[in-house]
Each structure stands twice: as C-alpha cells, then as structure tokens.
Amino acid sequence: xxxxxxxxxxxxxxxxxxxxxxxxxxxxxxxxxxxxxxxxxxxxxxxxxxxxxxxxxxxxxxxxxxxxxxxxxxxxxxxxxxxxxxxxxxxxxxxxxxxxxxxxxxxxxxxxxxxxxxxxxxxxxxxxxxxxxxxxxxxxxxxxxxxxxxxxxxxxxxxxxxxxxxxxxxxxxxxxxxxxxxxxxxxxxxxxxxxxxxxxxxxxxxxxxxxxxxxx
Length: 216
Description:
The protein has 7 helices and 9 strands. By secondary structure, the protein is an alpha/beta fold. The chain has one domain. Strands 1, 2, 3, 4, 5, 6, 7, 8 and 9 form a 9-stranded mixed β-sheet that branches.
C-alpha cells in the first residue's frame, strides 16, 4: 500500500528462497528500499540504531521488526551479531545492507565482511543476494542527472527528500532475487561478501542499463 501511495511500482525478477531463516543481502539505494523490499519478501531488516528516530522510516522499520545495531559501540558488536543469529536460528528471515550506508546510486559500494559475522560457521545457513534498483521515472529511464531525485545519501535530510520523492510521479523499482548460496560454499566470510557484492553489482548495472532483470 505504501509503495503505491508513493507512486512506486515494483517489478520482481526471480523468487525468494523457499524456506525460513534466510539472510537476504542487498545493496542500499534509498529510504524507499524498506517499503519496496517489504512488499516482495517477508523479512526483518538490520539497521543502525539512529533509524528508529527517523520520521516515517523509523516507524516502517520498527513495524518490520528491525534489528537495530549500534555500529559505533564495539563492545556491543557481539550482542548484535547474536541477535541477528538468533532471528535466523528461529526461522525468521533477515535483510542485511552490507554497504552499511547509501551511496550515490551510480555504483554499489564495497561490502563490509564483518557484517556477515551473524552467519558464523553455520554451513547450512542460506544467503540470497538481492539487487534493488530504481530504473524508470514516469516511463523514462532514470539518468545520472535524475538519480539525486531518487537516491537518499545518508547525510541528506530525510523528510524534505521524502516529500520531493512523493511528488516525482511514477517510479519503477526492480528487485532481482539471485540464486541462493550457503555459507559452506565459501572459504570464509570475506569470500562470501565478495561473491554477494559482485553478483549484486552486476545485476545493478544491468538494470540501470535497461538489461533484462534475469541477466546475470
């Protein structure tokens, strides 16, 4: 309902992994990622603790059972990792943004492998990479010049950006569900993070160039 109220139409490519306790790993473009992803997959988000205080976005995040993390407090890292791991072990799906922030929408930022610590050594944990992209505005491809209208860079005031976004018109968001993998498929979490980054970045550039969503 919210995506439609904002003028967003979501196009999905592929299907979510057919089981619970899946860690979905996705690039991060905008505050709008929350309602877009929430419309296509049932999962809790992982977000920095400040998000809880954001107008609208904080309400959405809490509504989706977000796991809030305090990234500036090293001593709380273990507790946060355990909280995410507990959600996965209980069969709950979790969405992770391993860029840890939003970028300029031109490329996918490097992934922080430390954020994959929640999967630990659980070799059977399922990880499914997702690519999200905003590809069209009022039927026309979104160019670099129009990206600032869509992308929300972390230090931008949220509320003015949200108001301007809602006045843009029809926005197409596309989400690719890439093939799921398991922790056991990789030597360590750095290799897992590289795999997820590469496949997500390839999908993102493909969508922004107008390639079919199932292009790998």
